[in-house]
Specification:
The chain has 140 residues and is mainly alpha-helical. The chain has one domain (22-133). Helix content is 64%, strand content 11%. It has helices at 12-46, 72-98, 102-109, 118-137; strands at residues 48-54, 57-63, 70-71. α1 (12-46) runs antiparallel to α2 (72-98). The radius of gyration is 19 Å and the shape is elongated.
């Protein structure tokens, strides 16, 4: 797992912190994307939206366009959209800290595009970064 990162350019503690933020962002983005996918299937496949706090119960699926209380479908959509921006920033920090080629940034960023993809990408990115950390610290 050779890397082209010299130990003089990367501070291990800083890289460890960047990796931690990236991992948290990847898991949250992955979970939100799964929720968004379920919501899209419910809305466009079954004509239902998720309502919270309405007259029919705490959290129920109601016919599309009949939400009277909090529209959780919209909330999930908005939260995922904004958190994907946070995820992109975490990807950028990891990518720029390691001075990887641009395709690696695109690879990291693609984790927020398809359901379940953020989990294997996070796994392999973490494995790669931990290898770089071990190399920097002389633990290889």
């Amino acid at each position: 797992m050779a890397s082209n990162v010299s130990s003089r350019t990367v501070v291990p503690d800083r890289l460890q912190g960047v990796l931690g933020w990236y991992r948290i962002a990847a898991y949250i983005t992955g979970i939100l994307l799964i929720l968004l996918s379920v919501e899209m299937i419910a809305k466009y496949g079954f004509g239902a939206e998720l309502e919270m706090g309405g007259s029919q119960g705490f959290m129920v699926f109601v016919p599309d366009g009949t939400v009277e209380a909090i529209n959780l479908s919209s909330v999930i959509l908005i939260v995922h959209g904004w958190f994907y921006v946070v995820y992109l920033f975490a990807c950028f920090r990891l990518w720029s800290t390691l001075r990887w080629p641009f395709w690696r940034f695109l690879w990291l960023a693609s984790g927020g595009l398809l359901p379940f993809l953020s989990f294997p990408i996070e796994h392999y990115a973490t494995k790669t970064v931990r290898g770089v950390l071990a190399e920097i610290r002389g633990e290889s």
